[in-house]
Request: fold
Amino acid sequence: MNSLFTALIAKRIVATVSALLVIGIGCGAGIWQLGRADTKIALAASVLAKQQMPILNANTSPWTLEEASERRMIARGQYILESAIWLDNRPRPIPPAGSTNAQSGFYLMMPLRLEDRNEVLWVNRGWAPRNNENRETLPPVQTPNKVVNIEGIVFAQPGRVYELGGGNTSIDPGKPRIEQNFDLVAEGKLHGWQQSPFILREVETGIGDGLLREWTPLTIGVDRHYAYAFQWFALAFAGFLFWLLSGLRQYKRQGLVNGDQG
Reply:
């Protein structure tokens, strides 16, 4: 046994340390991927539970983000069309069946002036495809010029994408506002109006306005995390197996050499 220990470890310090490093990295990364999957599942369960709670009404109370986050909410008011913001580089939430490429487009952020309240609520109305030939040619979207009732889910913000620089909050009345990201606090200061401390992501209600509201499920990507975890654990096992088999071969060769010498 001592001779086997010597052949596998004592005489192979570099190989043993390298194997331990590979095994440690593989197991650590695999556990991290499993943790990511568990986090997504727990988040989806939390959101689903909150959505089963009574629906909030934006017109009846000045809700805080803590009170309303991830809850269903209804609102009644009129859109402020001239203050719309088109968030660029947003992939279609759920690609069409059979498609392998994520189609790029916009999220349409539009303020809704709440009825009977001196308050504005920003609404993520949905997704629309981008014109690949001319970025400033906006997709045709219908916006009713009247008081509307909408329903959605409350979130802190519509999600962020990578952006070079700090963004531009200036307004050119002659051009549509196309931004990379949305800053709720900055918009409140820019317009000087009182607004809700969250956004409302509108849900699909059969309104034919040219926008898609098939939002990506929060559990999407869980299977990918499991697949990545399997790959990392397989790498760790392969590293251990290579270390063990190469050591046993070396031990066997040494035994044959010692036997020949004897």
